[in-house]
Structures are given as C-alpha cells and as structure tokens.
Amino acid sequence: MRFQDLLAYKKGFEVAMEIFELTKSFPKEETYSLTDQIRRSSRSVTITISEAYRKREYPKYFHSKLTDADAENSETQGWLEYSLACNYITNEMYQQIVEKSEEVGRLINYMILNPEKFGFKNH
Q1: Cβ-contact 100, 15 below 8 angstroms
Q2: pTM of the model
Q3: What count of other Cβ atoms lies within 10 Å of the Cβ of residue 4?
Q4: Which long-range CB contacts under 8 A does 67-72 form with residues at least 24 apart?
Q5: pLDDT by residue for the chain (123 residues), tens digit each?
Q6: Helix/strand/coil (H, E, C) string of 1-45?
Q7: Which site from 12, 53, 60, 103 is most exposed, i.e. has the minimal number of CB atoms within 10 Å?
Q8: Measured between alpha carbons, how far is 114 from 108 in angstroms, rounded to an integer?
C-alpha cells in the first residue's frame, strides 16, 4: 500500500486543498500570518502521516509521527476558529471544514490504536 492510499491521508489532503481555496480570498495583510499558518498546518497533517507510514517498522517513531499529525490537525482547527472570528469564512464553511478535520483526527487516532493494520511490524 502507498501512503496516498491511506484514508487519513486522502481525507487530510481534501481538507488541506479546501483550506487552500478558502484562503485565496483572505486579506492581503494576512498573507504572512494567518494564511501561511493555516496552509502550513493543514498540509503538515498529510506530510506527517506519510512520514509515519514510511517508518511504521519503528513503533515509537510511528506513534510519535502520528501524534504530531494529530497535533497539526488540531492546530488547523485553531486557525479555522481565528478565520471565523475575523469574518474571513462563514459559520457554515467553518462547520463543514471542522467536521472533516475531526474525521481526519479520528482516522489518525485509529492508526495510532491499531498499528498492526497498517503494516506495523512488532519486533
């Protein structure tokens, strides 16, 4: 299996691309702050999942990287909250993306709790 085939990766990629599209309309003064931060954290979710998957033979690394991915996912939710509070996105947009992000979090947690289902080899 390729890391791109992991459901957590696929769903996380969708969230990151939605955020990319949304942030295109953010004010210019947010370019180097909120826009960059939310894009970075949302993209980091999938990149960190891919790193974890490649190192799945090493239990501590696999777990650590997946918890990092989960943390990036939570950070993204925090930036979404700021986006809503600043009126850059609607409440409907916020709810829709947060729900998808929460699903990604559940999928990451499933991977953490069930490493053997992802080619994890217990030495």
Answers
A1: yes
A2: 0.93
A3: 12
A4: 67/112, 69/8, 69/12, 69/44, 69/45, 69/108, 70/105, 70/108, 70/109, 70/112, 72/41, 72/42, 72/44, 72/45, 72/48
A5: 899 999 999 999 999 999 999 999 999 999 999 999 999 999 999 999 999 999 998 989 999 999 999 999 999 999 999 999 999 999 999 999 999 999 999 999 999 999 989 876 665
A6: CCHHHCHHHHHHHHHHHHHHHHHCCCCHHHHHHHHHHHHHHHHHH
A7: 60
A8: 10
